[in-house]
Please model this.
Amino acid sequence: MKAEQTWFGQPRGLTILFLTNMWEQFSYYGMRALLVYYMTKQLLIAQGEASVIYGAYTACAYFTPIVGGVIADRLLGKRRAIIVGGTIMAIGHFLMTFESLLYLALATIALGNGLFLPSLPSQIDDLYEPGDPRVGWAYNVYYVGVNIGGFLAPLICGTLGELYGWHWGFGAAGIGMLVGLSIYVWGERYLPVQAGRPAIKRDAVPPAPFPRQTALLLVSVALSVTVFRGAYEQVGNTVALWADSGVDRRAGGFVIPTTWFQSLNPLLVMAMTPALLVLWRRGASAGHIERPTRKMALGALIVGAAYGLLAALEAAGGPTSWLWLVLFFAIFTFGEIYILPTGLGLFARMAPKGLGATTVAAWYLAIFTGSLSAGFVGTLWGRMSHASYFLLLAAIASFAALLLRFIGVLEERIERSPP
Model:
């Protein structure tokens, strides 16, 4: 049954889904914007150790969805998984207000995230009839929505944490999670019926088999994204440290809080995505539809260019103006829009019937492994020059682009094979 179209020509249920995830992203990025600074400044943890903790946490936050997706598909159903997972995450954010509970709080957030994260985007396809061309762009629209939360989080949670106390910032993140849950429960009437029911009856039917070529394609993409995220995740880690100590943040008589720069990425996602959607729709109307892996390869290459800019700035020496940091984020975000929502959409669209949340969870497996590697890449920050370090990140992203370009051959073979 089709819902009323109210957002970019998309079903109303899409608005409910991205508003729910918007507040989840607010809670996640609000806490993440403070985490490295909190560990190094308040808890006095060494930078290398803090980078490993940061990487391990972000990795675990994307490992638990692998199990959580199976639980959502086979036991709880997507609705219950979202409500239970979101509640656990809110508890974890509130636990962050106690210094002695740091590790327990991080583990609690990661556990709740495992149930919540794969269950929400896996409902997007349920909003559309088979063959509806809008579904490909739906993930970009969804991506804009969730980035509103990522934009607001550093401004609100970051400012509260830096200026008034860390516990105020972490508490605000927990409140944001509760707001997201409230929106989901209120908006259930706009979602597909099966998304709101317990999954027992639906899942009594065995899921469709996973085609071998499709599985090979998704595994290959996941490995490439693992490499890419080793560089990508440094934005909240070593790039954040560089912004704090290596960037002139004075604007007139005002010093820009470091956490505010974390809002640039989601702000630019919101600003750039509509124009790119128009560009892609015009290309599709003219018969020029770019394959997902090609778009992803281009995105990884652009992100590599952004890190190349930082390497050049460091090699030039002297203080770096905050305006250069803004330019970095503009290039970085442009590449991100090409790769991350495209990859999520690829995994969701290729999921066999009955394995939606499980297949989306496999996408988060790539984020898990990439985040884990990013934590160890971050330990090199204090062992090499900053120029060489940023050049290394550029090389990592570019290598991922090369891998994705080769994977395009497999994607083309799958498209040409008979159904």
